[in-house]
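Replying to the earlier thread about multi-chain prediction with a worked example.

Input:
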Amino acid sequence: MSARLSPARTIAAHAVLLTYTLIALFPVFVIVINSFKSRKAIFADPLALPMPGNFDWVGYETVLKQGDFFLYFQNSLIVTVASLFFVLLFGAMAAFALSEYRFKGNTLMGLYLALGIMIPIRLGTVAILEMMVASGLVNTLTALVLVYTAQGLPLAVFILAEFMKSVSDDLKNAGRIDGLSEYRIFFSLVLPLVRPAMATVAVFTMIPIWNDLWFPLILAPAEETKTVTLGAQVFIGQFVTNWNAVLAALSLAIVPVLILYLISSRQLIRGITAGAVK
Amino acid sequence: MAARKPVRWHIAVFLAPAVAVYTALMIIPLFGTLLQSLMNETDDGERVFVGLQNFATLFGDALWSDAFWNALGNNTWFFVIHMLVQNPIGIALAAILSTPRLRMAAFYRTAIFIPTILSFVIVGFVWKLILSPIWGIAPGMLDAVGLKMLFAPWLGKEEYALTTLALISVWQFVGIPMMLIYAALLSIPDEVIEAAEMDGITGWSQFWKIKLPLILPAIGIISILTFVGNFNAFDLIYVAQGALAGPDFSTDILGTFLYRTFFGFQLQLGDPYMGSAIAGAMFGIILLGVCIYLFGIQTRLRRYQF
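Result:
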């Protein structure tokens, strides 16, 4: 392959990447370590690690007592999982129809669905809110699931259709000869084969839904339907001066996403670079 | 024809759920909002069609137009910073990461992408705390390298606040251009690189002369994604500076302006009709940007097939 790198250039490359990694991780690190420290220690030496001398749970105690974080967490989980399920199911079905069959208006339908990739759904908020008010869905998790499903579909259809084009026709035709219905071909032949692509779409769909503040704020701000993101925002707003509580709330909001990301990061990166391995 | 071919209902069944949800919650509200921007309410609460009057107010009435141009100007600056800082850093990181046989590349990639997965709420508050003059991580660190006089409460000063927020957003999202460019660089076939090396083109000149032209389409995609994302941004400003986008509206962008107008804030009452007009203007701006990209830039980019 290509020429071997000189040691100096390798070191330079590592230096640049390491510096940027530090920039990327430092703020998260500072928040998490300080969330375990006493108020005095937070101010006296913000960069010190939590030690037996300055260790304090008080922030987490406040958060667990005051905010209903378990409920928020549950809400976020329900909304994210349900939206993800519908995005993947409906998205894969539409992608299959677009990539498998030739019919009138196929290209047009593809373009129609792709429109949503470029035009953000937020611009329709005014009308979405009116619609939810009219149908009595304000302050329900259903409203959020519906909106997020619509938001996630365009990209899901687009990516999955690309992948489904690569599923071998022979396999599908063999299934047809064996008398499988089109539905069986989709569910038991094609879906298992595009599972890696589904995982990529899942990660891409999940992150913006979990992190969204706009729609929970507008469609479901009630106490019992708050998501973690909105809950943390409101909580921090109320406890601005209670640094222990703020830092603990931030850490609690970071950790679940971080774990999820570390579990799925290989899949995510494989998905992004999948186009590269032709 | 139709008599010979049976209707293929399964196609409709496969498409129906996605098209129904997408149409009901994305397309109809979008057009509903655009339509509503042409309406207003009479004093007795009746909806009437007023044509472009809301837009005339938005652009003509100094009370509205000042706020609108301020938000648009700020938003443009927000976008310029992303283009000048985020995308070059992303490309540079991707170029270094794609060095063949670089150790720990997977670790760097994973770590640098972490800020991107965090929610705006976390990012906004984390940086607010770090830059806070009270807590003193930023002043303390500047002090350690003898640059304490450079410190200012950046988020609180009109002249710095917007740039600071844009840089925070850059910090958060640099992972996206990095990943996309990285994927584009990996897709360059080895033969092309080998041929370049045969001709003695290596190192920097190889990047500028061979790789960069090949990844231009990916850079185009990143630019348009950045554009759409920036002109639709709201969360970071709302979290860090509140809906009033302080100090003195110096960080107000179109998203916060839309939110304030539609929902009202403090003494100001919400106005769904003017809110729709602003959403309509944002729609126009984003559409214009996407069209410039699709017809002006994308068609001119030369694509290479291997």
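Residues 69-100 of chain A form the longest helix (32 residues).

Feel free to reuse this layout for your own posts.
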